[in-house]
């Protein structure tokens, strides 16, 4: 799980550094391991947005 989370955040940070918005970053992430998560479609957008805000704050 730790590796999965680290990869998730790394993908979001890479997208952020490329100047992408969170909705654009979602299209670049490999989310196949997360698709089994309950309410994946509803929750993944919020998770990406939350991580994007954390990355943005850390790079401010």
How would you describe the overall organization of this protein?
This protein has 60 residues and is mainly α. It has three helices and no strands. It starts with a helix and ends with a helix.
Element pattern in H and E:
HHH
State the total count of DSSP E strands: 0
Question: What does the radius of gyration come to?
Answer: 11 Å
State the major sheet: none
**Outline:** globular
Mean pLDDT: 94
Unreliably modeled segments: none
Compact description:
The chain has 60 residues and is mainly α. 67% of the residues lie in helices and 0% in strands.
Question: Any descriptors?
Answer:
single chain; 0% strand; mainly alpha; 60 residues
Write the layout of secondary structure elements.
Blueprint: H1 2-17, H2 22-26, H3 40-58
Helix pairs in contact: 1-3
């Amino acid at each position: 799980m730790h590796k999965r989370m680290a990869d998730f955040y790394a993908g979001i940070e890479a997208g952020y550094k490329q100047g992408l918005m969170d909705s654009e970053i979602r299209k670049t992430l490999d989310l196949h391991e997360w698709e089994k998560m309950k309410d994946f479609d509803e929750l993944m957008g919020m998770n990406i947005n939350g991580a994007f805000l954390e990355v943005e704050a850390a790079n401010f």
